[in-house]
């Protein structure tokens, strides 16, 4: 993705990040722009470019989802209230985190819609156009999949905006219909994308295939979830997939480039224009004032509770990769119990290491100039999807056990833990797979979605949960986010607001 393009059309800004260079193209209207397949690619790149903005994965959406889980809590109590509200489930309809990314997600969708519609103007063979347009279908599905899981019924727009008045009065589409459209987009992408791409930040058939399995898992369509996940597994060699030998290498900005495990990544490039392409995860999750990685330390905002550290078996190699228990202050290594002695806005808890230890940051802006590739989907998750879905349709399956055991074998890294799984009941295996997802995918912004789709809140937010009791959580309200108050004010057709807000 080597171009930077900005479309300004009826108020919708579509921007793209690049792997290598940025070439300002100017301000363009869609009419007359689409002449060649490369023009379709340029518009498609815009959709993926929005994903690395501060409004989306750079900070607002990713942090929101992390804080709502049972594994990441607020560390610095002086951080913005809009963040604390998600940790404490006191979110109002005017929450700045949600308002910050709602528009950005629709900009992703708008860019994808422009590419899909623009392809109709290009005189080229269908197989040439569709291979590119399929990326836009994937981007649109990816964006809507986040929105529908968070908000339920939402406005569904699948064409470029040509009538601003009509767009400003659009009503909500039922979640079931949104899901059907997501599946249709991913099916198109699976049909036309190539088996592999030059970069995992460009979706290949494997990414569409894998996301279909996750969408069906989320919907409770377990047979289809298994079929799609099994399709990825059966094509492991064709798709050039596999588990990385060393779990740490998955979170190494250099090693990840050649890894076979990621299916789709967001590629931060170590440079930014304002908040375009800035990587805030290291700053938000890093230890405040820490000197050990040479980028100025973090802000101690999103930090695991102490019980996450205490309940994670130390024989599990993933624990040491995922958490930092020491920091360096004044050239001396200190343990987490005394972090606050050296910075009053730090917190005496182990911190997330996945986004700080080897993420390739520059020394500026607390690591925001990162060239890290964030894995939106990786092969280990596909194996766990297959195991979870198969257990629902065929309990006691040795095939399902084998998928879990393959992931667990890497976690041992020479130890005897975690042991292979065998002979569990359906209920016990279901619980085990969700626990394995919790540790394997820890802090990778998956846990909230697992809590929501399996309705686990009463269990995980109880007094004996990892973060202790979350008394403000209301199951009748908080599995969905509020629709942004500004959007409802501008467009009453979006009413009613989600229950409880």
Automatic annotation (TrEMBL):
Residues 346-501 form the RagB/SusD domain. Its main location: membrane. Residues 90-217 form the SusD-like N-terminal domain. Keywords: Cell outer membrane, Membrane, Signal. Pfam families: SusD-like_3, SusD_RagB. It is found in: Cell outer membrane. Residues 1-18 form the signal peptide. It comes from the Bacteria. Belongs to the SusD family. This is SusD-like protein P2. The lineage of its organism: Bacteria, Pseudomonadati, Bacteroidota, Saprospiria, Saprospirales.
